[in-house]
Known about the structure:
27% of the residues lie in helices and 15% in strands.
Amino acid sequence: EEAPFTFDMNTGLQIQEQTADEDATVVEYTSDNGSPYPHPYQYQRIGDNGPLLLQDTHLLELFGSFDRERIPERVVHARGAGAHGYFEVTNADFAKNYTMMDMLSENGLRTPITIRFSTVGGESGSADEARDPRGFAVKFRTRKGILDLVMNNTPVFFIRDPTKFPPFIHTQKRHPASHLRDKDMFWDYLGSNPESLYQVMRLFSDLGTPYGFRHMHAWTGHTYRWVKRDGSWVYVKLYAESMQGVKNFTNTDATAIAGSNPDFATQDLYDSIQNGTYPGWTMFAQVLTAEEAETFKYNVLDLTKDWGFDDVPKTEIGKFYLTQNPDNYFAEIEQAAFTPSHTVDGWAPSADPVLQARLFSYSDTQRYRLGVNHMQIPVNAPIDAVANFQRDGAMNVNGNQGSRPNYLSTLQKIQLPPRPYVDDMHQQWTGGAVASLSAVTEIDFDWPRRFWNSLSAQDQQNLIDNVVGHLGAAPTESVRQRMASLFYHANAILGQAIANGVGVEVTALTFPDGPTWFNTTKDTQNSTLDY
Ligand code: HEM
């Protein structure tokens, strides 16, 4: 096993050799202003039983601070756990063919990382074995700025229209009146937005209840672009494969664990790192040129479609490991701000509309959740110097860029780096994306069928049982019927079993044909659930 890195919160996150654990330094108790104070439990009152004194500033500080301990939790992905480690390049020759990314430029080059895993719908204290996608956000502190890969443990997502995200999330959280998770609302949305079906099937297979955070893969989901210094680019998706292998709970086990140890995943991650069993993932890339994307069977800007490794082969580019637990969860994990808008030269968004909307949403929520200067918090600050014209604001704690001019001055010049390339957005493939993304057509049932056919008989049965258990509890018959009919349209055996289980008759649904390049007969594959 490689020597781990030390993530030092106090010295600007320098990479250091790990040293033996030192005893916690003994410190003297003080008030907030650093003045030694004799006893934390002491307070001032008149006589033995009289009222308290306003002059007791230690007491005032204690409550003033406590009263403000909670900050807004993340609006989604509130429940999570994280750790630090490093990424190491293993195939710079391949990567350099396609991207100028500094962090991929030399074999053996290591970049310090922080990862936060999460569930999506639950509040920050909810059970982390809930049936839910898992977030898998990686912060790379590269020599040339921060890159965040804000991934999930699934190659696709429920939506491909960004405007659906807030209402969709509402249906997966609590009902406005009852404040309960509401199965009618949950399935009403999914049944009337059929492009979500593949993600729904993954969620209701045992992939929806992973055994902790170490035993799952991660996907960027969206198509991004790798760009070279000459401005040429390709489409790329990244995929991280767990070295621990995929392991899931059955619904019965997940329910039991959620009751007996709702912190199971958090504890599993923490304990394994503490024991020196560092979890690792191998990072792969899938690449398509713009020309190949034109004739590819799926719209590459459609987040509900996977590329599939049979269709677009994957090539290893590196490995990453988690080697260090946080010293302080709030400082290093809760305050971490991941966003797809943290990009570096060589890594660029595609025109996927959901991705484009995410470029706004994350930093915006973080300005609210953590404050306008959240990039100065040590876990978020880049390791290279920041020089720009952003100034002031609440909690500006790092010197505010000193006396440097706060505009493009002719008196004291700021060095402007050479513009590395001209990103010619006109070259981007559009392929009818805007029109074909929103309308549900036959092509939207291709991946649900591929997924169903890839499952073992046992995994197919578990999927049916998991859906029946949940959908069966939706009170409204039309909601259950619409959803069962959608499953039926994807696969008759699946849909009929669900319809029987939830007590409805299926109705035949029809959808327009997919785009002309779409041909379902090509699409049989035999992978297993560990994909
Ligand atoms: C967290 C918005 C889709 C992965 C968040 C947060 C917001 C958000 C506001 C909270 C961020 C914070 O408080 O720091 C959106 C919007 C989406 C979208 C508007 C679509 C329009 C996605 C997709 C993925 C994803 C497609 C994965 C491919 C994550 C992850 C986190 C997160 C992993 C947790 C990050 C952390 O651990 O701090 N999202 N999201 N989201 N999102 Fe999304």
